[in-house]
Amino acid sequence: VQLVESGGGLVQPGGSLRLSCTASEFTFSSYVMSWYRQAPGKERELVATITTTGGSTYYADSVKGRFFISRDNAKRTVYLQMNDLKPEDTAVYSCKAFRDWDRRVYWGQGTQVTVSS
């Protein structure tokens, strides 16, 4: 399984970006999908998670109300819409696929998000 992220870049504070993560696995719909981020010198943190059907989502307190996770199983893609970006959101963002029944985990390579004026 290959996960490929896109959509990162440089944005000014208050701006928006939408990250995408597309999977090569045709059983994408059986994976819980998450976005993580890691800033320089900091541990990786969970940003958001979405269940297999998209019926439930979870957000870290630091992004709640600003970031929104969604998925399109037909396109094998998970999205992270990031609004009102702050300098502290600067990090490498990676997507993770997790399949519950066999505990299989896959990671994308990451995409850089930089929030700066």
CA-based shape:
globular
Relative strand content = over 45%
Mean pLDDT: 96
- The helix-and-strand class reads mainly beta
Ranges with pLDDT <50 over ≥5 residues?
Answer: none
**Total helical segments:** 0
**Span from first to last CA?**
37 Å
Order of helices and strands: EEEEEEEEEEE
Number of strands: 11
Helix content: under 10%
Radius of gyration: 13 Å
Largest sheet: 7 strands, mixed
Highlighted features:
117 residues; 11 strands; four-stranded antiparallel β-sheet; globular; 51% strand
Overview of the molecule:
The protein is mainly beta and 117 residues long. Helices cover 0% and strands 51% of the residues. The chain has no helices and eleven strands. The strands form two sheets. Strands 2, 4, 5, 6, 9, 10 and 11 form a seven-stranded mixed beta sheet that branches. A four-stranded antiparallel beta sheet has the order 1-3-8-7, with no helix packed on it. Strand 5 and strand 6 form a beta hairpin. It is globular, with a radius of gyration of 13 Å. The relative contact order is 0.32. The mean pLDDT is 96.
Short overview:
The chain has 117 residues and is mostly beta strands. The chain is built from no helices and eleven strands.
Give the topology, please.
Elements: E1 3-6, E2 9-11, E3 17-23, E4 32-38, E5 45-50, E6 57-59, E7 67-72, E8 77-82, E9 91-99, E10 104-107, E11 111-115
Parallel strand pairs: 2-11
Antiparallel strand pairs: 1-3, 3-8, 4-5, 4-9, 5-6, 7-8, 9-10, 9-11
